[in-house]
Amino acid sequence: MALHTKLKPGKEAEYESVHAVIPPELDTALREAGVHSWRIWRNGLDLFHVLEVDDYAAMRAALRDHPANVPWQARMAELLAVEDDYSGDDTGIGLVWELPVKE
């Protein structure tokens, strides 16, 4: 799953600082919701996320009201240009092409 989000101007360093160590209870919640890995790259204000997750829609449903995720999302809302309130049917960025695996 690939995602794109944007930071508010001037929030770059704060965003990176907040992500230096995520709360242990959020780490546990993500893993219990089927997340195997989550990487974020930043280019200016643009954030690009790549997740390995069993079922993205199920993960979002599990985290929507999770007590570890609600305060994290509130904190992210302070930094992101558009807050994620988990109300939509986010399906991520559509795949256009990938290098085929050679066997």
TrEMBL record:
Gene Ontology molecular functions: racemase and epimerase activity, acting on carbohydrates and derivatives
Highest taxon of the lineage: Bacteria
Name of the protein this chain belongs to: L-rhamnose mutarotase
Species per Swiss-Prot/TrEMBL record: Amycolatopsis vastitatis
Lineage, uppermost ranks: Bacteria, Bacillati, Actinomycetota, Actinomycetes, Pseudonocardiales
